[in-house]
Write a structure and sequence with these properties.
The complex is a heterodimer of chains A (117) and B (106). Chain A is mainly beta and 117 residues long. Chain A has no helices and 11 strands. The radius of gyration of chain A is 13 Å and the shape is globular. Chain B is an all-beta fold and 106 residues long. The mean pLDDT of chain B is 93. The chains are: A mainly beta (117), B mainly beta (106).
Chain lengths: 117, 106
């Protein structure tokens, strides 16, 4: 158990719908990361937040948005869902963000499996 | 995003054998990381590398940061059944390879 929690574990929805995925980081971790893992794409970095502010952005679609709240939990919002959005969505947390080139170990949650029908 | 090529895509080996896998990139990275993912779980960090040429071990695992900073290698010695899983490389923390699926036959 990494200490990172994600809800829900599974989510089934229809095309065009909007969903919210939730992540609670490990106690004391200030930074949260979101990743998408699909069969044909591997793990794709979406976005990082540090202490409530956006720190880095990856291949996140405009239909997707995220935020980190004052209590440090984070939500990933996916809207106008398409079949291709079906994937595992992982949240990870670390104590800090990045500091230059130094890596702060990320601890991954168990993921949310999203199925778009 | 930056593309990391990981090979082999899958491996089937006998228990006790050594395993080698690698990751290459067209871009230079300052950090190389290796993760293992078990079914139904998130990736877990195995080894982090910070300097070109660095060789780091974690038990039966050894990883190297390539001199060119465009590649990295992971070796597993004397494989055991619990080594089964998908191994990912990651460059500069955010850019992941496509994974190597390892099956260990008892």
């Amino acid at each position: 158990d990494s200490g990172v929690t994600q809800t829900p574990k599974h989510l089934i929805t229809a095309t065009g719908q909007r969903v919210t995925l939730r992540c609670s980081p490990r106690s004391g971790d200030l930074s949260v990361y979101w990743y998408q893992q699909s069969l044909d794409q591997g793990l794709q970095f979406l976005i990082q937040y540090y202490n409530g502010e956006e720190r880095a952005k990856g291949n996140i679609l405009e239909r997707f948005s995220a935020q980190q709240f004052p209590d440090l939990h984070s939500e990933l919002n996916l809207s106008s869902l398409e079949l291709g959005d079906s994937a595992l969505y992982f949240c990870a947390s670390s104590v800090r963000g990045t500091s230059g080139n130094h890596y702060n170990e990320q601890f991954f949650g168990p993921g949310t499996r999203l199925t778009v029908l | 995003g930056q593309q990391l090529n990981q090979s082999p895509q899958s491996m089937f080996i006998q228990e006790g054998e050594d395993v080698s896998m690698n990751c290459t990139s067209s871009s230079i990275f300052n950090t190389w990381l290796w993760y293992k993912q078990d079914p139904g779980e998130g990736p877990v960090l195995l080894i982090a590398l910070y300097k070109a040429g660095e060789l780091t071990s974690n038990g039966r695992l050894t990883a190297q940061f390539g001199i060119t900073r465009k590649d990295s290698f992971l070796n597993i010695s004397a494989s055991i059944p619990s080594d089964v899983g998908i191994y990912f490389c990651a460059g500069n923390q955010f850019y992941f390879g496509t994974g190597t699926s390892l099956t260990v036959i008892p």
